Amino acid sequence: MNQAVVAISSDFLTAFSALPRQVQGKVTEFINKFRNNPQSPGINYEKLHDAADKKICSVRIDEAYRGIVARQEESGVYLLLWVDHHDKAYAWAKRKKCEINPATGNVQVFEVQEAEYAPKPVENAGLFLKVSDSDLLKLGLPEAQIGIIKNVDSLTAFYELKNKIPEDAYENLQWIANGFPVDEVLELQITDPVPAYEADFATALQNPRSQKAFVVLEGEDELRNILAEPLEKWRVFLHPAQRKIVQKDFAGAARVLGGAGTGKTVVAMHRAKWLAGKLKGKEKLLFTTFTTNLAGDIKENLRKICSVEEQKRIEVINLDAWVSQYLREQGYSYTIAYDDIIEKTWDEAITLSGEILEFPQAFFAEEWSKVVNAQEAFTQELYLKSSRLGRGTRLDRKKRLQVWHVFEEYQNLMKDRQIRDVETAMYECRKILGKTSENARYTAVVVDEGQDLSMSAFRLLRAIAGAEHPNDMFIVGDAHQRIYKNKAVLSKCGINVRGRSSYLKINYRTTEEIRRYAFSLLKGISFDDLDEEYDDGRKCQSLTHGMIPIVNNFNNAAEEIEFVIDQLRDLEKQGTSLKNICVVARTHRLLDDYIKQLNQAGIRTYEIKTNKLDDRSFEGLRVATMHRVKGLEFQHVFIVAVNKKIMPLASAINHTDQISEAESLTAEKCLLYVALTRAQKSAYICSYGTPSEFLV
Fold first, then answer.
1. In contact, 461 and 447? CB cutoff 8 Å
2. Model confidence over 7-56: pLDDT tens digits?
3. In this structure, how many other beta carbons lie within 10 angstroms of the beta carbon of residue 367?
4. Cystine design at 683: which of 301, 510, 549, 628 (Cβ 3.0–4.6 Å)?
């Protein structure tokens, strides 16, 4: 007899999370005992009367609760499938089968009909009538369910089968149900590198498809971590497409694209863990992103999946902070300045130049960033030769010289005051790195939210990672979520990802209805792939369904807040904790007004601030600005005050020229897209007075 293998399913964790806390404690105690010895005399196995699968039985948790287990004693494999109150557990298990799919080699749990029947389709009545039985099998559908699928005559009927069909098969069939050709879907299949045999559950559990649904329990610490947050399945289960990317050896830099909710950050974190496990000696890797708060969220989440040794090898810091830290280490005393200080410096530079130019301050700041810094044209000669393709304001040679005089004064002021804007600091930091003889500090660099970084940032990261080598850079991003107006072309920053690019297609967060609505906000806008091609974003799809976002316009602010409060109380009555709901507003000032009104109504709030993590131990409704909510997710999201001049925010629109104005409007649309796609189950968009032009 082989040594016993005990695995727990994703569905088991879902059921476990819904149990009363005191029952969860008993289940945890049982699983510990079960993991140590599933053949212990103390394990009370009970056969299920008229069960569809004789391998499936129940185990006693206490007088009222039962676990559902599939056991294959000849291979020594025991699978924990479900846990619930006695009657509900038996009802769940009665028509279930747990088998290895002979076509795909993975373990599947699925429901069978009371009686098998052959399909009797009406001509052209079914969604899958034109799909051959052999193709259905290749797509992962169990043979016993072919009849069920061939009789599906609508998308609604298909969606109702979600919990009865194996998840991997349902995913493939959904692509076909939504119009994708069978051949194209078959081409997307991840080839199983592990040979599988129908009778061997132990081998089948090594299949990447199985690992999307099952995790083998290796120790008590792992079990405790899994059961502590059973709904944080991203820590344990990876889609085969994600796992393939995470564990692949690339010859150089790799890029991963995907829409909101497709798990890009999850892939980046698991990639960092995988790389850290391969490092030796004093080798380290840098995990960086654009904002401080997102870096903090990532650092906290890496602790949940990494060992202490792996954590020591991963430095998590946003890039601006890394630059500031590095410059201090090198003995540079200037500081990196932002916002008000930089704006004041530009105003003074324009005045000191003596040039009479009818350009607003924003023009000079953008010209400095998008032309001078992007092309490293830091001398008059280089600036006069630089390309201004994509800039909306035309400049002849005379005007370029006048603009350069402003730039000279700006540079002088920065030197005199011992400050730098971050783009200039990145350039100088890279030059310092180029002069040092020390070996690269990091073996690899992982970048999250790559669409938010500039040309200067990626050139610096290329220098930090050192000369191109295997697995040197791993970049994830989505131009549809570019909310900071930075833009880079990787190939022009010395980063070659050709032939090493992947696209994540499954949205795990939002319903398809929310995804489609949010994506419709971006209609007509062209988005890049972080390099020199385009990303139309149409490759993504959600596997869950629900109601479309609720859009309401009210006469005044009082009516709006009354509606929000009523909906919050209804969600509470339905069993939703307030900490799983977030109210999102465009600005801090607006948010303060909503916090005050919510508190007056007796609703406790918890504001997620910049540089502050969402502490899940605190109860209360989450509130955040649109920028701060990026990277987070909640069951329900309310976006409030989506009014004219607030969304888009009037002060955020650059009216220098048509191109600058269009870029500003796109950034605002992306911001609304980001806020909407934080929602898992439902989204509410509220306005009062005149609604935003984005909603018309």
1. yes
2. 999 999 999 999 999 999 999 999 999 998 998 888 989 999 888 999 99
3. 24
4. 549
Inter-helix orientation angle 264-276/292-305, to 10°: 60
Angle of CA points 177, 182, 187, to nearest 5°: 125
User: What one-character DSSP code corresponds to residue 480?
Assistant: G
Residue where the block lists tokens 């570019």: 482
Asked if 316 and 634 count as a contact pair (C-beta separation under 8 A), the reply is: no
- Check pLDDT > 80 for residue 117: no
Determine the residue type at 427: Y
Name the average pLDDT for the chain.
Answer: 92
Question: What span, in angstroms and rounded, lies between the C-alpha atoms of 83 and 371?
Answer: 60
Task: Work out the average pLDDT over 549-571.
Answer: 98
DSSP 64: S
- Neighbouring CB atoms inside 10 A of 304's CB total 14
Scanning the structure block, which residue is given the tokens 């399909």? 119
Torsions phi, psi for 467 (to 5 deg): -60, 150
User: Residue 45 to residues 39, 56, 608: CA-CA distances in angstroms?
Assistant: 10, 10, 47
SS3 state at 672: helix
Whole-number Cα distances in Å, 60 to 42, 147, 250: 10, 35, 48
Q: Are 669 and 521 in contact (CB under 8 A)?
A: yes
SS (H, E, C) 353-386: HCCCCCCCHHHHHHHHHHHHHHHCCCCHHHHHHC
Separation CA 85–CA 145 (nearest Å) = 28
Are 354 and 406 in contact by the 8 Å Cβ rule? The answer is no
**Identity at 470, one-letter amino acid code:** P
